[in-house]
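Tip: read the tokens left to right.
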């Protein structure tokens, strides 16, 4: 496909894409096992942080909807706010890190890009946790309101 386009345009790959090393750095196709492991670790830690935030937010929201004055000695709004900040912060951090916090990574020389599952897990996973938090809050509100 690329070869056909280059042949049709009459230019070389060097002319179209520039220096190969510089281009490879831009598209992040380096097959570094250590970088992949670090990327996966960041992604998993951010997902776990998002889940902790979700549980805190739902715990605080449940207490608020049931008119509980204290949760282990603190007002229920505290775990709600902290949880929401943590779950949204984890999703934003994952988005800002981009490919440096991916679970699935494309291999050098792979014939095709990672599929739909990789996209969902890498890009939408943290935002799905935010969505689940909001859906959980809605269900709690319906149940106790």
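Filled-in amino acids:
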């Amino acid at each position: 496909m690329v070869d056909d386009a280059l042949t049709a345009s009459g230019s070389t790959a060097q002319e179209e894409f520039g220096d190969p090393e510089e281009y490879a750095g831009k598209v992040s196709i380096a097959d570094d096992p250590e970088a992949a492991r670090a990327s996966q670790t960041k992604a998993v830690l951010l997902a776990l942080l998002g889940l902790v935030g979700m549980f805190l937010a739902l715990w605080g929201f449940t207490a608020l909807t049931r008119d509980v004055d204290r949760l282990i000695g603190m007002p229920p709004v505290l775990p709600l706010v902290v949880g929401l900040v943590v779950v949204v912060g984890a999703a934003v951090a994952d988005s800002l890190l981009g490919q440096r916090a991916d679970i699935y990574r494309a291999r050098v020389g792979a014939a095709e890009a990672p599929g739909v599952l990789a996209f969902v897990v890498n890009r939408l996973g943290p935002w799905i946790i935010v969505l689940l938090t909001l859906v959980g809050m809605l269900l709690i509100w319906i149940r106790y309101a």
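The chain is about 70% helix and 0% strand. The helical segments are 2-9, 13-17, 20-27, 33-65, 77-97, 116-144.
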